[in-house]
UniProtKB/TrEMBL annotation:
Residues 165-207 are annotated as: Disordered. This is Hemerythrin domain-containing protein. The lineage of its organism: Bacteria, Pseudomonadati, Pseudomonadota, Betaproteobacteria, Burkholderiales. It comes from the Bacteria. Residues 16-136 form the Hemerythrin-like domain. Signal peptide: none annotated. It holds the Pfam family Hemerythrin. Coiled coil: none annotated. It comes from Ideonella lacteola. InterPro entries: Hemerythrin-like (IPR012312). Transmembrane segments: none annotated.
């Protein structure tokens, strides 16, 4: 039976997706606050475990947004350039995440890199919650199907991270010799590292 886009179930499915994304945002912000209270020299292993956990959550969250949420938003939002900006922000964050992956608390600039990543993330969250999510909340879509795909993909990514951290890590965007991000890059999906997924399929379900 086809899902009805205006049904109570559809509204509940939409709320569920947005709540999951906002829960991620809250958890990430809390982890950053926790990190700020610590001293990387004195509390090295605790700092490292916060960073590891946060990077893992960021990877899953950004991957879900890149694969499912942004393609869905692009035709809906009044200003699709905001979606482009959010994608570029993810690219920059991927770069910082890659630098932190194998770092430990004793490394030069460990705290600075994580702090910059989190400050960047705070800005990104503000844009999403302030500008993009409100428009998503007004969109009429087959939210039940979107929610099924979103939650299924989320489970798969979380399971992949639990089995093998870094498995959901997109290749770091290429940089030129000065370390500047090459602007033409879009994160490439790496078929060998990703659980099977038909990307973009939910965009066709827009009604
Ligand atoms: Fe987000």
């Amino acid at each position: 039976m086809p899902h009805h886009p205006h049904s109570r179930a559809s509204t509940a499915a939409r709320s569920h997706i947005i709540e999951l994304l906002q829960d991620d945002h809250r958890r990430l912000k809390r982890a950053y606050r926790e990190f700020q209270r610590l001293d990387a020299d004195r509390d090295g292993s605790l700092c490292e475990s916060i960073v590891r956990r946060t990077l893992q959550e960021m990877r899953v969250h950004a991957q879900l947004e890149d694969e499912l949420i942004y393609p869905l938003m692009r035709p809906i939002v009044s200003d699709p350039e905001r979606v482009d900006e959010a994608e570029v922000e993810h690219e920059v964050m991927t770069l910082l995440i890659a630098q932190l992956e194998h770092a430990n608390a004793a490394d030069d600039k460990f705290s600075a890199r994580f702090a910059v990543l989190c400050e960047y993330l705070l800005h990104h969250i503000k844009e999403e919650e302030g500008e993009l999510f409100p428009q998503l909340k007004r969109a009429t879509l087959d939210w039940e199907s979107v929610c099924d795909e979103f939650t299924g993909r989320r489970e798969a990514l979380l399971a992949a991270e639990a089995r093998d951290p870094l498995s959901t890590m997109p290749d770091a965007p290429p940089t030129d010799e000065t370390g500047l991000l090459l602007s033409s890059h879009r994160p490439a999906h790496h078929p060998a590292r990703y659980p099977a997924h038909e990307s973009g399929s939910i965009t066709s379900r827009k009604i």
